[in-house]
C-alpha cells in the first residue's frame, strides 16, 4: 500500500523559527509514514526517506518586483498538477499566504487545507514599509485562509483569539504551541562581586523584536556595573535595522560591551556561558528562542505581552516592552542583589511543564484527524 501524499509549499530557505518548525513538520510526517512533496524555488535543507522537492524554474530574481507574482502563479499551477497526478487529499501549509495558494490550486478537487499560522502577519505588516497596502493584502489573505481552510492552527491561544475576532472561524481554529526540545545545560549563577554578567538575546533583527529597548535599558545602568550583551541573530528587516542598533550602541558608549554576533549555529555553546536571556519582543507566536533558553535552564526576562504571559505567567519575569525603565530596574537587581539571579532562574524553571510535550506527535495527530 502506497503512503498517503501530503503537498506543501515554501519559496526558499530562510533562517529562523518559521522554517525550523516547517522542516520539523515535514520530518514528523515522513517518520509517521506520509509522503511529503513540497514546491519551492530551491531545495530546502530538510531530508527524509519520503520527502520530495519539486523545484520551480524561476526567471525573476528575489529582488525583482516580479518575483512574488511569478512564484505565486508557478506554485499554484504546480500544486494543482501535483494534486491531480498524485490524487492528493490534503495540503499542509504554513501561513495564510501559502494557504491561499493551496485553496486556489485545489479548487474543486476536494482537498483539505491544513493551515499552520506561526505569527500575526497583519501586526508585522504595520512595522514594514508600505504598511497600508501590506495590511490590506494580509487581511485579505487571512479572511480567505480562515474561510476556506479545513483547519487553522495557531501557536498560542492569544493569536487564535485575535484571528478569530478579526476573521471569524471559531469552529475551525486550534492552538498548538511550540515545545521545549533543548536539554538542561550547566548554567552557573553569576558571582556578582567577581563575574562579568553576560546577558543575551537570540532573535532576528527587526523593529517588531524591539531590540532597541534592551540597548536603551542597558545605557541607563550605572557605569561601574560589570556586564556584556550578546545579540545573536541576523537582520531581516529590509530597513538596515542592524545599522540603527549599532549607531545607538556607539552613541551611548557601549560598543565595548555590546556584541552583534550575527546568525550562529553554536547558540547552545554561547548561552552556556551566559547568565540571563532577555526577550523584548512586541509580538510573538510561541517564541522558540525563549523556550529553548528555558530548556537550557537559563534565567529569562521577557516582554509583558499576552503571548509571552502564556509562557511566563509570573510577573517577576516580565517587563514593559514600551518603556525601558522597568527592564533597567530588573537588570540592576540582577547585577547587584546576590540572590536575585537564583530567584529568576527558579521562577523560569517553574514555567516549563506546559511546554514539555511531543510536538511532532501532536502535529501528526492533527493531520491524521483531517485525513479521517
Automatic annotation (TrEMBL):
GO terms for molecular function: glycosyltransferase activity. It holds the Pfam family Glyco_trans_4_4. Residues 16-178 form the Glycosyltransferase subfamily 4-like N-terminal domain. Keywords: Glycosyltransferase, Transferase. Its EC number is 2.4.-.-. CDD domains: GT4_PimA-like (cd03801). Residues 194-338 form the Glycosyl transferase family domain. PANTHER family: GLYCOSYLTRANSFERASE, GLYCOSYLTRANSFERASE EPSF-RELATED. This is Glycosyltransferase family 4 protein. The lineage of its organism: Bacteria, Pseudomonadati, Pseudomonadota, Gammaproteobacteria, Thiotrichales.
Amino acid at each position: 500500500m502506497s503512503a498517503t501524499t501530503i503537498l506543501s509549499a515554501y519559496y526558499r530557505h530562510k533562517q529562523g523559527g518559521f522554517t525550523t518548525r516547517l522542516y520539523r513538520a515535514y520530518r514528523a510526517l515522513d517518520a509517521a509514514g506520509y509522503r511529503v512533496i513540497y514546491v519551492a524555488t530551491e531545495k530546502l535543507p530538510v531530508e527524509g526517506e519520503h520527502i520530495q522537492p519539486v523545484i520551480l524554474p524561476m526567471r525573476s530574481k528575489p529582488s525583482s518586483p516580479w518575483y512574488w507574482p511569478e512564484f505565486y502563479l508557478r506554485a499554484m499551477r504546480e500544486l494543482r498538477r501535483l494534486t491531480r497526478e498524485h490524487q492528493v487529499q490534503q495540503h499542509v501549509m504554513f501561513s495564510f499566504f501559502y494557504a491561499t495558494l493551496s485553496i486556489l490550486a485545489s479548487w474543486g478537487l476536494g482537498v483539505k487545507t491544513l493551515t499552520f499560522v506561526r505569527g500575526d502577519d497583519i501586526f508585522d505588516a504595520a512595522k514594514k514599509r508600505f504598511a497600508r497596502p501590506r495590511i490590506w493584502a494580509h487581511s485579505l489573505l487571512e479572511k480567505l485562509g480562515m474561510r476556506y481552510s479545513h483547519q487553522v492552527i495557531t501557536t498560542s491561544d492569544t493569536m487564535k483569539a485575535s484571528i478569530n475576532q478579526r476573521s471569524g472561524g471559531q469552529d475551525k481554529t486550534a492552538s498548538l504551541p511550540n515545545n521545549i526540545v533543548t536539554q538542561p545545560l550547566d548554567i552557573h549563577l553569576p558571582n556578582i562581586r567577581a563575574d562579568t554578567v553576560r546577558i543575551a538575546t537570540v532573535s532576528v533583527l527587526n523593529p517588531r523584536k524591539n531590540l532597541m529597548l534592551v540597548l536603551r535599558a542597558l545605557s541607563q545602568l550605572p557605569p561601574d556595573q560589570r556586564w556584556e550583551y550578546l545579540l545573536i541573530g541576523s537582520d531581516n528587516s529590509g530597513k538596515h535595522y542592524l545599522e540603527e542598533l549599532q549607531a545607538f550602541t556607539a552613541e551611548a558608549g557601549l560598543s565595548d560591551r555590546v556584541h552583534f554576533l550575527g546568525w550562529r549555529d553554536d547558540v547552545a555553546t554561547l548561552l552556556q556561558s551566559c547568565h540571563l536571556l532577555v526577550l523584548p519582543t512586541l509580538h510573538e507566536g510561541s517564541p522558540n528562542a525563549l523556550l529553548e533558553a528555558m530548556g537550557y535552564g537559563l534565567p529569562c526576562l521577557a516582554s509583558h505581552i499576552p503571548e509571552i504571559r502564556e509562557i511566563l505567567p509570573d510577573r517577576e519575569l516580565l517587563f514593559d516592552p514600551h518603556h525601558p525603565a522597568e527592564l533597567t530596574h530588573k537588570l540592576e537587581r540582577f547585577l547587584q542583589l546576590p540572590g536575585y539571579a537564583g530567584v529568576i532562574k527558579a521562577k523560569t524553571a517553574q514555567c516549563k511543564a506546559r511546554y514539555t510535550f511531543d510536538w511532532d506527535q501532536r502535529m501528526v495527530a492533527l493531520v491524521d484527524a483531517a485525513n479521517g
